[in-house]
Amino acid sequence: MPTESIVVLDFGSQYSQLIVRRLREAGVYSELLPFYAETAAVQALNPRGVILSGGPASVYAEGAPQMPAWVIESGLPVLGICYGMQLIAHTLDGSVEASTKREFGPAEITIDHPESPLFAALDLQQRVWMSHGDKLTKMPSSFHPIAHSANSPYAAMGDEERRWYGLQFHPEVVHTPHGRELIRNFAYRVCGCEGGWTAEAIAEQAITRIHEQVGGGRVICGLSGGVDSAVAAALIGRAVGEQLTCIFVDTGLLRLGEAEQVIETFRNNLHIPLIAVNAAEEFLSALEGVSDPEAKRKIIGEKFIRIFEREAESLGDVQFLAQGTLYPDVIESTAADRNVAAKIKTHHNVGGLPEKMNLKLVEPLRYLFKDEVRAVGLELGLPESWIWRHPFPGPGLAVRILGPITHERAETLRRADAIFLEELRNFGLEREVQQAFAVLLPVQSVGVMGDYRTYADVIALRAVTTEDFMTADWARLPADLLQRAANRIVNEVREVNRVVYDITSKPPATIEWE
Ligand code: XMP
Questions:
Q1: Which of 18, 34, 75, 112 registers the highest number of CB atoms within 10 A of its CB?
Q2: Is any atom of ligand 1 closer than 6 Å to the C-beta of 349?
Q3: Domain boundary among 139, 155, 190
Q4: CA 512 / ligand 1 centre spacing (Å)
Q5: pLDDT tens-digit series, residues 151-205
Q6: How far is Cα 477 from Cα 443, in angstroms, rounded to an integer?
Q7: H-run or E-run covering 501
Q8: How far away, in angstroms, is 474 Cα from ligand 1 center?
């Protein structure tokens, strides 16, 4: 049980998760709960305050989510954002109406009541991000205005005695440059939080939880080579030591030199028993000639199960399987279940293992965001080079070899990909993009080399910048880098005579090609 927290009630805004992130970044533990959460679930978090998120509904519409009774009865400080603010007005004696002018985008607010702790140490003029159709037309009688904008007489309002506040704009998004301070002010100055949600505390709490769950049982943990599974393993290793065995499977669909690198880094940095399985032949022969992406994923998923079963059996009495599920995945799948936020991406980590294997799941990262996972990784002594690795899909190069998979095509892609990544590193840009890779296309094109016409493979290069992988932009890589990578690929990988660069954002494209 956390010693303190701020509960964020989700009314369906696409930004709800960001509020939780901002609180955690400010050192205060927070969780996102559905607006209809049971009181017991809330109490279990020891809340010092509540934030009501934005949302797509109109508070006055029939069936619109309403203020939970426990919020009012608890006497806790409340911050309503957008829909949350309108809900405060609607619940008390204010009023909300549809606005003739939707307000969407940047706005300038003026703070009229700088004594409010919410705006402590902030300039009187602030740039903020608005996104609302409805408008507050009358504040509840116990409230007073704190800030206004040209279009909103009540851009911020408060009842300082009750410690309830409302904001018409979104402090959680980056387009509100000082929104972080506002959220911090709410947590520390209004709710009286003490902070202390640090990497050390996170690790400590996770280790305690693992201990409680696993007891004297045996755990296996699949390493993917990515940061999540490594941090999960490190935490479980700290909690239960030799009861954990890690398994790393070389599928033959990893990047150049990756298997050796993962095994070496792991053995040098984490003192946890590791079984390295070379299953390249097994995977590649099962996939030989398969083109359909879903068929590829299915075959790979099944192979993983088979291999894990085999290894678990040879270890004997294993009861638990570790998975690196992160908090955004948890939020996303529960949000989709209750249909308050559209499910944008299906969660495609290698699934289905526990049900089929009768193992219980251990998910030490279940309440953590990616940046927290990285911080914990550093805290536990994982090397920076591992912490900042780009994510790599579970099915590996299989989903980057468009068309049939063969040994030769896997090798072509692996070599082209290695050149691209090497040049990215040479230009010092690996950390500037969040994911970069090569894709082997299922077409051949004409080229000319020396006096010969060629008919050979096409490689597409993809590099993206993104905060959360849900949306992404194509990276504006320097032309010199692209030229150098293209040149080297065509010269050094005989099977390739053309290189293209993918300049689509997500959406409408996805990051991977299949
Ligand atoms: P998309 O292509 O959906 O990718 O924009 C978003 C993120 O998910 C990764 N990805 C996968 N990860 N199995 C995985 O474990 C998969 O089948 C898979 N497909 C995409 C992708 O690399 C990116 O980081």
A1: 18
A2: yes
A3: 190
A4: 6
A5: 889 999 999 999 999 999 999 999 999 999 999 999 999 999 999 999 999 999 9
A6: 25
A7: strand 496-501
A8: 16
Pair 203, 118 in one domain: no
Which token pair is 310?
A: 């085999």
- Cβ of 391 below 6 Å from ligand 1: yes
Looking at the fold, whether 355 and 411 belong to one and the same domain comes out as no
Same domain, yes or no: 68 and 185 = yes
For a mutational test of ligand 1's pocket, the pick from 343, 511, 514, i.e. the residue with the most ligand atoms closer than 8 A to its C-beta, is 511
Render pLDDT for 204-263 as a digit per residue (tens, 0 to 9). 999 999 999 999 999 999 998 889 999 999 999 999 999 999 999 999 999 999 999 999
Say yes or no: 155 and 287 in one domain: no
Mean pLDDT of 290-294: 95
252/81 Cα distance (integer angstroms) = 49
Locate the DSSP E strands across 295-357: 320-322
209 and 278 together in one domain: yes
Residue 396 Cβ inside 6 Å of ligand 1? The answer reads no
pLDDT of residue 27: 97
> What are φ and ψ of residue 352, in 5° steps?
80, -5
**Which two three-digit tokens encode residue 191?**
């709710």
For ligand 1, what atom is nearest to the CA of residue 512?
A: 2
Determine the distance from the C-alpha atom of residue 400 to the mean position of all C-alpha atoms in its chain, rounded to a whole number.
22
Both 223 and 310 in one domain: the answer is yes
Q: Quote the domain boundaries for residue 243.
A: 199-387
Domain at 417, CATH number: 3.30.300.10
- 455-508 per-position pLDDT tens digit: 999 999 999 999 878 889 999 999 999 999 999 999 999 999 999 999 999 999
Number of structural domains (the chain) is: 3
Predicted model pTM? 0.85
Average pLDDT of span 406-434: 97
469 lines ligand 1 (CB under 6 A): yes
The alpha carbon of 6 and the centre of ligand 1 are apart by a number of angstroms equal to: 32
What residues are labeled active site?
A: 82, 170, 172
Q: Is the CB of 324 under 6 A from ligand 1?
A: no
CATH of the domain at 373: 3.40.50.620
Give 50's Cβ-side CA count (13 Å radius): 29
